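Closing statement on the iron/sulfur cluster sub-project.
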Amino acid sequence: MAAGACLLRTLPTNSPTPGPSALRSPKPPRGYSDRSPTPISCPVPGSVAVYVHIPWCAAICPYCDFDKQASDFRLVDQYIEAVLAHMRSQPRRPSHSLYFGGGTPSLLTPARLERLIKAWRTRFSVTTDPEVTVESNPSDIVAHKVGAYFAAGVTRISLGVQSLDDEELRFLGRRHTADKALRAAEAIREAGCQDLSVDLMYGLPRQSLDSVRRSLAGLIELEPDHISCYGLTLEDDTPMGAEVVAGRLPLLADDAVADQYAEIQRMLAEGGFGQYELSNWALPGHESIHNLTYWRNGEWIGLGAGAAGSAAGRRYKRTPVVRDYTEAAMNRDPAFVESEKWSKPSALRDTVMLGLRLAEGISDMEFEGRFGTSLRQYCGPRLDDLVAAGVLEWSGERLSLTPKSYFVCNAVLGELLPP
Ligand code: SF4
């Protein structure tokens, strides 16, 4: 599962309904006792995040619309040379994170991963304690491989568990079973991982609230440092989306999905995890610094087929076609299929859209310092109306969604943003 790619997905715009009552007796919290609006500490100002896309998967999941392929594995080494060529062509500047997303980056051998990490360290001025994440499929995890990843400089594993129900995993076309996922998490910990993130999917057709509870309880038992929970969103051109369009696969009702989300919020708060973003929870100090860069509308460089980036005054996306990407990169061509200069209107809009995904919200002072206009001036009277309605709130000079409004974030943005 490509957790990094998932971060740009948004929650459904349906109405929230109250979550069900408590499930089990509370455990003493290991981390947060409550949502904290305190801003999470920033990486070095001016530093950049680097994303590397590894598009290969051993099998294709029927709901997936990421840039991925399960063919042409023989091109992997040429592809890595192409990514290295693009990496070496970047201007030298500080970097606080490296993220391998996909696709399935855990298909890479430790030696290939090490080459990429070394090149990043050589090209960029890497900050102290950088975050180096590899999205991993439980099927690929064996202790010696993951141990070699850490020896190569990986600091964080994002494990695509998705569910601890074997029937749901089969429905999703995943290669692993619940048992395999649990054993993979154990192997990652035994290899010395200090920063383990796990993914859960909810809102699946026919998925019951109890099933979400069971999977999430099993994940919490693993004592991960970070949990991402993604609601299923389907594009019509995926095999599963086509089944829905043809009327053969009914989606879960919006209210049922809202109940699942509310229950996830409740269980994770009880388990000591702080919700720092709409779909992400962490123990203190384990928030993903890389992904925070996106939500704070910071700068990131995207390398590899289909990778997007936003740095040095330009937003871009590179070709998703592996052969085209490889050929272009070796000819010093950036392989852009989309590229536009930053503009003030889009930067204003993106900063509000992304910043309101975060529990810490948006600093009005930083907003005004960057754009010369306050949040009230930019959003107009709609902002005060939404605060009065209890949908948005001020904590000092920071504006954020109230937690009960997280599930309807898209609808709130539709009301708040200027046309
Ligand atoms: S593992 Fe499945 S969900 Fe993840 S990128 Fe590959 S096809 Fe998509």
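The pocket of iron/sulfur cluster is lined by residues 1-2, 57, 60-61, 64, 66, 68, 102-104, 137 (CB under 6 Å). With this model delivered, the sub-project is considered complete and its resources will be redirected to Aim 3.
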